[in-house]
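Inputs:
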Amino acid sequence: MEAELQGYLQSITQKLKLDPTTNQEVVLELQTHLEEKVKELEQEGLTYREALSRAVQDLGHPDLIAKDMYSVHSRGSWWDILLATLPHLLLASLFALHLWTRYILVAVLIIVVTIVALRAWKQGRPKWAYTWLGYSIAGPALSWLLSLAALAYGAYSFLTTGALPFSTPIFILLVAYVPFSLWIMGRVVIKVVKQDWLLASLTALPFPFLTSWILFLNWQGGIFADHAPKFQETDGDRAMVFLALAITTAVFMKVGHRFLKIGLLTAATGVLIIVTMAAIPFSFGLLTVTLIAIASVAFMLSPALLQSRLNKPEPSYIPRDSVEEGTTNWSPNER
Amino acid sequence: MYHKELLKGNTETLLLFLLTEKPMYGYQIVKEIENRSQGYFQFKEGTLYPALHRLAKAGWVDGIWGEASTGAPRRYYSITAKGEGVLKERLQEWERFSSAVNSIMLAEAQ
């Protein structure tokens, strides 16, 4: 019997998708409510099973409670929004002021962002921490991508010419770095996805844009090429894109409904990646633009798939087909 | 159904009003509302907690964990000064609203 109460509470826990502290508090409050009501109903002469069934029915379906609670707690305060948009705004200003070629400044900023993200993560995962987390894993993620590209290029050269294009120690370092950076990213991503895949998508929001930018730089002759004056004209467009990411993040945090949040991230990614590609001084075909936009949107939605693989299936005795807005029809006897 | 709509629009005010008397926990609030309305308002309990949390987030009530006599943890809600200000405004609005409605709908009876 106790297991049925736990099952009900557990299914709420799984659906809340809030930070661990809030999750725990919400569930504890509901648990004491149910226990108290069950005790009272038992005193009125009901068996434990009947009492629990009544109490749970009166409280309502886990989906409805979780949805309402999510809508209350997933909204950020203005303070959360200010902090959450800060990394996007910072990068937008780096582009606007043409400061991104000052690599020491950029390195210092990445370190600061990483430290802030780690501290925030340890202190109860505030809502604003996810954008900071995104930029702090951008370093490992992009260097992983570049290392992988370098390795592929090395392997290709070795197969065609029989010699490596760079020294063997560098090759060994690259071979070691690729799984290492992947491991760091994997750990972070899995932790975020376990709470809520949508937060993982918010974390990953700058990635399609950072990737397109790095690829663009590479195509123009590499990150360390002498490009400052040459690229100044596209800096303004890029600043606007990251400003748009800041606005998207702010709206995401003020909206309470999950479907609106998902729609917002999807639409913003699709539109902004097209804008980004239009800003690059190279004419892509319509098909290429469409394919890249679809790939970016798929990337933003991919954490949802990962979550469904990570989380165990829900307890089978929760009837899934009887969810109806405004009704409270869950009962542990309805097996 | 009509009274459900009415209750929906006034849940927050009812909660704030109840909490002016003394700090209460969720289940206690459910019972108070049912008793005082003589069973007219059957509060859908699942909507109570999100409503209380919304009030707490707005800073109109405080939710503080305490203990029941059995030792079980309980969250007691109490109204804040900000909440009292909101309640005052809402009660004035309610008075104006209900007297306006009455003066139209109950005009014949007078």
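Chain A touches chain B through 23 residues (CB under 8 Å). Flag for discussion at group meeting.
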